[in-house]
Structure formats: structure tokens, C-alpha cells
Amino acid sequence: MSTTEGTTEGATEFTVVGGGIAGLVVARKLAMAGRTVRLIEASDHLGGTVASRLVGGINLDSGAESFATRGNTVAELARELGLGDEIVSPSDEGAWLQPVTGAALPLPSTGVLGIPSTPLSVDTIAVLGLAGALRAQLDSLIPWFGRRTDISLGKLVRRRMGKAAVEKLVAPVVHGVYSLHPNDLPLDRVAGLTERLALHGSLAMAVRSLRDAMPAGTAVQGIRGGINRLVTELAADLKTYGVIVEFERRIESAEALADLDGTVIVAAPGILAPLRGRAVTLATLVLNSPELDAEPRGSGVLVAPDCTAVSARALTHSTAKWQWLKELAEGRHVVRLSYNTEPENLAEVARHDAEVLLGVELPPDAVVDFARQQWIRPAALTAAERTDGVIVVGETVGGTGLASIVTHANAAAERLLAPAEEAKTGSLPVCPQGAGENG
Ligand SMILES: Cc1cc2nc3c(=O)[nH]c(=O)nc-3n(C[C@H](O)[C@H](O)[C@H](O)COP(=O)(O)OP(=O)(O)OC[C@H]3O[C@@H](n4cnc5c(N)ncnc54)[C@H](O)[C@@H]3O)c2cc1C
Q: What is the CATH number of the domain that holds 177?
């Protein structure tokens, strides 16, 4: 049976289905503008993939744990919610790479998606070997005719910088970020790369120019105490502005939307089309291991797709990445591993993988606590699945990651609040899927 929170006067003008970040942002904006809003959520809590969980007595983000700084949208939202002083940058410890064979190596820090900007730099040579680095440097001599942009990132890098650059650098990063091999990542999903390639004629120069165009400071930020604090504050605002929240009510189909009051906004995947997507399993370990105090792999390790030494595709050393978490953990270490395919006996496999990737011994009694969490990353709706007239926000239409989704949800709310004539003629923005984050 569903439970309802909040009261409001008058007929419902808007019903938002789904209480993840997208639904919360839209519901809050509409309610702040004085409109009567009802939010329907299938589970017994708000936030969706922005969630938290106690592991080893520490309250940890159990889904998203950072946000992209581009566009400043999430930071702006955090400031509006009174969390401006709580925005933090990750430590400047870089990430590492676990190659197919051999020990982990530092990831060259000046690339984009692993594509080196300086193929003959010491850290790039360390990963590619001298022959591989010299082959990558040939990129500067190969003309760019720009005839084919409908190719994969893998194919482009292979042509211009050689196989080693793809397999040893780009594949581990793209695999860690998108769960894809670069051969399966269309070039046009890497925003701005082909344009800059056309402009500069070399891939390394294009990467350098992309990096120069990035805002100063870190590409991602977090919130002291966890990204999940956004949800706590959004939920508090819904209460303040009188939004009725119905928990444990699942809207089963597109047809069922017709029974809802007012203008309906779909902020949940799986309603307009069957839920498709990829599963991600997270294993979180809280560890007692003084050897990890030295943070041997910086903020974490990205794993080459064909590496058989471990099953994880990436590891984050969360207490090395976030100073606030290090303080909270009081000497213990938090490590998070992600898996595309969940292995049997995840707890043991995660302990073993952490040991290999971090390069320290982690006997079973080093594990203070373990938690498993599985998420689905929903695929984008196809044009055919986007029913005319139904307003949709969230990951299935708004792109990947909080920065894209919040930008899209803000724009959707503004359109809904625009005077009737304007609202009829305008269309909601659709950000390209894949513009953003990992997970
Ligand atoms: C493991 C992981 C790590 C991530 N890390 C990052 C990161 O570090 N940075 C970043 O920017 N992004 C990250 N992301 C992505 C980001 O968390 C999501 O893109 C974003 O939170 C999606 O928000 P949403 O509102 O679209 O959907 P969701 O969060 O999926 O919310 C949808 C809501 O709708 C509800 N619902 C579903 N079906 C129904 C129904 N039929 N009826 C009613 N309610 C329904 C759900 O219960 C849920 O509350 C990560 C994602 C995962 C899984």
C-alpha cells in the first residue's frame, strides 16, 4: 500500500512520476513557482541512483559519488539548497591503469579518455613502451582529411596513434567510464573531438585543445558528506513547498499515465518502453590496512578490458579521493569496485581484486565490512519510444550523469512554467546520451 506525505491546496496541476534527481528537480521548480505538484515514487524513498548506505558504520554514497563541473549546474543547485559551502574537490592524486598483464601504472594526466596529448611524455612512454609511443607520435605527421567521422573512437585512435595507444591507454579508460570498448564508442559521443581534429590536424593537438577549453580546476566535484545530501535537501524543499509525495506506488505503463492528474512528467525509466540497459554491480569494502595509508594507487585504478587478473572493471579508493571521507573513516579505508558481470561470491572476489589492483595484501580479517549494490543504467529512449506530447526527463532522455540530467530537468521545468503560447511552440532540449559520467 502506498504512503503519502505532504498536503497542498487545490487541484493537482502537475504529476511527476519518479523521485530520482530529475523528478525531484522538476517537482521542486514547479512547486517553488507556486504550482500544485504531486510526485509518485515506486520505492519507499527518494533519490533513485543518488543514494546512500551505511557500510562499516560510515554513511556512503551507494550510487553517484561526484558531479561534472561543466556548466556549473549541479554546483548551482547545491548552492540553492544551502550546500554551497559543502562543495569539495577530489584530491589531486591521479588515477592508475591496470594493463592486461603486469603491474598497474599511473595514468598519464594530460589526456582525454586516455588519448595522450603528449605521446612522448615520460608517463606515456611508461605505459606504451618506446615503440608504442613513437607510433603514437606519428599522429602529428598524418594528415586529417576529415572524410569519415561516423567511425568509432577506437578506429580513429588506432589509425592515428596505433594499436598500443588503443589497447593500453584508451581501452582501460573508456571501459572504466562507459563499460564499452573504444571500438564500440561512436566518435561523435566524444563531444568536440572531431571539430578540434579538423581544426588542428592532429589527434594529440585536438586533445590538448580540448583540455585547454576545460574550465580551470577539477572536472568533477563532490559534496562533503556525500552527493546524497542533494536528495535530503531537495526532499526538504518539496515539503516546504507543499509537494504531495506518494511512496510505494509504481506506474506500470504508458497507458496508466492517462489516469494521473494535471500535466504528467515522466521521470522514471521503464514506463514509456520496457526497461533496457546495462547492469552495474558495486562492491564496497571498508578495510583496516595501514599499507593503504600511502594511497598506492592514487584515487583508483581503471582496468584494461582483457585483463584476466581481476574481474572488476574499475576501483575507486574513496578515502584517498575524498578528504572528508578520509576524516570520517578514522584510519579505515573505503574502496569501491564496479563489475559489469557480477561474479559468484562477490565479497571474496572483491577482496581479491582490491588486493591485486592496490598492490597490497588484504587478508580476510582486513575487511571490516562489505556491501553489494546492483543498479541498472537505463538505455536512452529511441525516437519511436518517445510518445508525442509526453514530457520526459531523466537519464533516458537527458544524457548521462547528474550535470546533464539536472540541466535538462531545469530546462523542462522552465518550459512548463513558460507562458502557454511559448510552451506550445518550443521543444524540450535533448542532450546527447553519453555526454558525461561514469558508473
Ligand atoms: C553506480 C552508479 C554510479 C554513478 N556515478 C555517477 C557519478 O559519480 N556522477 C554522476 O554525475 N552520475 C553518476 N551516475 C549516474 C547518475 O546517478 C544517474 O544518471 C542519475 O542519478 C539518474 O537520475 P534519474 O532521476 O534520471 O533516474 P533514477 O535515479 O533512476 O530515478 C528514477 C526514480 O524513479 C523511480 N521509478 C522507477 N520506475 C518507476 C515507476 N514505474 N513508477 C514510479 N516511480 C518509478 C525509481 O524508484 C527512482 O527513484 C551513476 C550511476 C550509477 C548507477
A: 1.10.3110.10
Q: Helix/strand/coil (H, E, C) string of 263-279?
A: EEEECCCCCCCCCCEEE
Boundary-marking domain end, from 182, 213, 244: 213
Ligand 1 contacts CB of residue 402 (under 6 A): yes
120 and 203 housed in the same domain? yes
Among 93-97, 129-133, 197-201, name the most confident range.
129-133
288 or 68: which leads in pLDDT: 288
* Pocket-testing residue among 15, 16, 49, ligand 1, by greatest number of atoms within 8 A of Cβ: 49
Write the residue with the smallest CA distance to atom 16 of ligand 1: 401
Q: What is the CATH number of the domain that holds 45?
A: 3.50.50.60
Reported confidence tier of residue 41, pLDDT bands at 50, 70, 90? very high
Asked if residue 228 is part of any domain, the answer here is yes
Is residue 436 assigned to a domain? no
Ligand 1 lined by 372 (C-beta under 6 Å) = no
Q: What is the percent of the chain with per-residue pLDDT over 90, rounded to a whole number?
A: 71
Which H or E element spans position 58? strand 58-61
Q: Is any ligand 1 atom within 6 A of the Cβ of residue 230?
A: no
Among 277, 276, 287, which residue's Cα sits nearest to residue 326?
A: 287
Q: Is 226 in the pocket of ligand 1 (CB under 6 A)?
A: no
The total number of structural domains in the chain stands at 3
pLDDT exceeds 60 at position 174:
yes
Task: Give the residue whose CA is nearest to atom 12 of ligand 1.
Answer: 401
Q: Are 356 and 103 in contact (CB under 8 A)?
A: no
SS3 (DSSP) at 375? strand
Tens of pLDDT, residue by residue over 330-351, are 999 999 999 999 999 999 999 9
**CATH code, domain with 298:** 3.90.660.20
DSSP character string of 393-418: -SHHHH-SSHHHHHHHHHHHHHHHHS
Domain boundary among the residues 213, 244, 264 is at 213
